[in-house]
Automatic annotation (TrEMBL):
It is found in: Membrane. The chain crosses the membrane at residues 12-34, 54-75, 87-109, 121-142, 163-183, 203-227, 282-300, 334-351, 363-383, 482-502, 514-534, 546-570. GO terms for biological process: oligopeptide transport; protein transport. Its main location: membrane. The keyword Protein transport applies. The lineage of its organism: Eukaryota, Metazoa, Chordata, Craniata, Vertebrata. CDD domains: MFS_SLC15A1. Belongs to the major facilitator superfamily. Proton-dependent oligopeptide transporter (POT/PTR) (TC 2.A.17) family. This is Solute carrier family 15 member 1. The keyword Disulfide bond does not apply. Keywords: Membrane, Peptide transport, Protein transport, Symport, Transmembrane, Transmembrane helix, Transport. It is a multi-pass membrane protein. PROSITE patterns: PTR2_1, PTR2_2.
Length: 621
């Protein structure tokens, strides 16, 4: 197949072979990212021994940084190294970061007294912070480049294939993240160590590190097959200078005597290339359309916070298995893996058959509406929970009344989540004597256990300990969260998968990665809005906060649909080709332009000294 730049690539079933390496790379990279992220807060809390607040804020800072760094990667790719080299270099940085995380989690390195706890915590903290910084730089930096690089592999005539590629790309993101969020918590729960056995965070970080190395190797293997668009110099510098010149030139010509121009960017025509101005107009048009989009991510990213907290007040007993609150999040990638193929092969073709033109911007609007609907469902579930008056966390609150005349130490084993019931084992110890007993709990319940004065420690105490249920278990089932997950995920498919492709198709050739980064920036801003709204609104009832978010998104959705109505789709390649054809004429024009500019500058100088006098002079010239 010969693509837009005359590059000849191998094809399989109408698709360039090179994209196989790109989607496998994405799968491994997302496995690496989400796998590491899944155990990060627990690593902060239990390995570095940070409190909940510090752990949560460092976690969110890291996630926000991951969506801010794409702009850096995009500038480097589009202006300097090109996407291919940027992906290679930043993937190396990323893999080093993951290895640093894995090493930072080996307690034996500083466990000089071999008691199972690190003796030099500073070493572990510093190494893990360096690791996280490198990971944020790497994952964020390559993110806009990989998607845009994949899009580059298609020729202009392969629009349909390119759309399918973005769907498959999204499937790989979710396939990788689903697998890793299941696997790494299992790895973390293992015990490992050289001198003493501890929870195996090093393995939980080590496997994602290995997957990142695999991602890099796979990407390099495909090297000979890629179409590699060349960077066109410091494009972002030129863009900024051109916009700056247009603004200042417009300001200098604000007087009514100067004829207005069709677009404010046209004021840059006196100095800059028409092609560059046309490309900037395309980018600005799309970026303007992006202004309302962060609100979608504001709702979307609350799956990991508010919805997980909601799940902690619900009953996770699904018969064969007990689902932990944070495990509910895996419903999202599972639904993505089912909904993307259904949408692509059934829903969208059906809509088309009905004669409806379901354009990308219409899809995104419906996506926003569905996300708002998801929050209405969340509010209804919340009301149900509030009515049932079960506000406790799934960690069962337990107290003991000691009837013995000596102090008894009580400790507990971990709760086993994959059994039909939640079973906890308690160890009672006094001096050298100890005994153990187990009890089953319901989510959210609270118990008081009585240790009788006659209890003989050292023997079996299973039968001797009696308990009273203080608070009944949570009665609202976690399955009730499924509708809200369904709507938010259907919204994600319509909004995010479409937006990814839209950002690529509407971007000029030399700013594809930049526009992808602009798209990812809406995710970062959305995350900041969560913090602001939650802080400012401070609503007493959780369900009212859900309704507030749903209403905000609905308003934004209406604004966006109006903006979308006035948006005209463009074909950047066609526009660029038109300007390139006119380049000869433009060269001739340039001298005239330069002359005109000099004239106007002279005119401005004279304007400042004596307007009337100048007017006289001009007519004489
Ligand atoms: C936010 C990103 C632009 C999109 C993408 N994320 C997803 O596809 C999520 N559905 C993945 C996910 C996985 C597990 C739990 C929650 C979400 C990405 O990561 O690129």
């Amino acid at each position: 197949m010969v693509n837009k730049s005359g590059f000849n690539s191998k094809e399989v079933c109408g698709y360039p072979l090179s994209i196989f390496f790109i989607v496998v790379n994405e799968f491994c990279e997302r496995f690496s990212y989400y796998g590491m992220r899944a155990v990060l807060v627990l690593y902060f809390k239990y390995f570095l021994r940070w409190d909940d607040d510090l752990a949560t804020s460092i976690y969110h800072t890291f996630v926000a940084l991951c969506y801010l760094t794409p702009i850096l990667g995009a500038i480097v790719a589009d202006s300097w190294l090109g996407k291919f080299k940027t992906i290679i270099y930043l993937s190396i940085v990323y893999a080093i970061g993951q290895v640093a995380m894995a090493v930072s989690a080996i307690h034996d390195i500083t466990d000089t007294d071999r008691d199972g706890t690190p003796n030099n915590m500073t070493f572990h903290v510093v190494l893990s912070m360096v690791g996280l910084f490198l990971i944020a730089l790497g994952t964020g930096g390559i993110k806009p480049c990989v998607a845009a690089f994949g899009g580059d592999q298609f020729g202009d005539h392969q629009e349909r294939q390119r759309r399918t590629f973005f769907s498959v790309f999204y499937l790989c993101i979710n396939g990788g993240s689903l697998l890793s969020t299941i696997i790494t918590p299992i790895l973390r729960a293992q015990n490992c160590g050289i001198y003493s056995k501890q929870k195996c965070y090093s393995l939980a970080f080590g496997v994602p590190a290995a997957l990142m190395v695999v991602a890099l190797v796979v990407f390099i293997v495909g090297s000979g097959m890629y179409y590699k668009a060349k960077p066109e110099g410091n494009i972002m510098g030129d863009v900024c200078k051109c916009i700056g010149f247009a603004i200042s030139n417009r300001y200098k010509h604000r007087s009514k005597q100067y004829p207005s121009r069709e677009h404010w960017m046209d004021w840059a025509e006196d100095k800059y290339d028409k092609l560059l101005i046309a490309q900037i107009k395309m980018v600005l048009k799309v970026l303007f359309l992006y202004i309302p989009l962060p609100m979608f991510w504001t709702l979307f990213d609350q799956k990991g916070s508010r919805w997980t907290l909601q799940a902690t007040t619900m009953d996770g007993n699904f018969g064969a298995i007990v689902i932990q609150p944070d495990q509910m999040q895996t419903v999202n990638p599972i639904l993505i893996l089912t909904l993307v193929p259904i949408m692509d092969s059934v829903i969208y073709p059906l809509i088309k058959k009905c004669g409806l033109n379901f354009t990308p911007l219409k899809r995104m609007t419906v996506g926003m509406f569905l996300a708002a609907l998801a929050f209405v469902c969340a509010a209804v579930v919340q009301i149900e929970i509030d009515v049932s008056r079960k506000h406790l966390t799934y960690f069962n609150l337990t107290q003991f009344v000691n009837g013995m005349n000596k102090p008894v130490n009580v400790s507990t084993s971990e709760i086993f989540p994959f059994l039909i019931i939640i079973r906890a084992t308690f160890f009672l110890q006094s001096g050298q004597l100890s005994c153990a007993f187990s009890r089953d709990f319901g989510f959210g319940s609270s118990y008081t256990f009585f240790i009788p004065s006659t209890l003989s420690l050292g023997s079996n105490c299973q039968e001797s300990i009696t308990g009273a249920e203080d608070i009944k278990p949570n009665s609202v089932h976690m399955a009730l969260q499924v509708p809200q997950y369904f709507f938010i995920t259907a919204g994600e498919v319509m909004f995010s998968v479409t937006g990814l492709e839209f950002s690529y198709s509407q971007a000029p050739s030399n700013m594809k990665a930049v526009l992808q980064a602009g798209w990812l920036l809406t995710v970062a801003i959305g995350n900041f809005i969560v913090l602001i709204v939650a802080e400012v609104a401070k609503l007493p009832k959780q369900w009212t906060e859900y309704v507030l978010f749903a209403s905000l998104l609905l308003c934004v959705c209406i604004i966006f649909s109006i903006m979308a109505y006035f948006y005209t789709y463009i074909d950047p390649t066609e526009i660029e080709a038109k300007f390139r054809r006119n380049v000869g004429d433009d060269d001739d024009d340039k001298n005239d332009k330069q002359r005109k500019l000099e004239m106007e500058m002279m005119k401005r100088d004279l304007d400042r000294s004596d307007d009337e006098h100048y007017k006289g002079k001009q007519t004489k010239m």
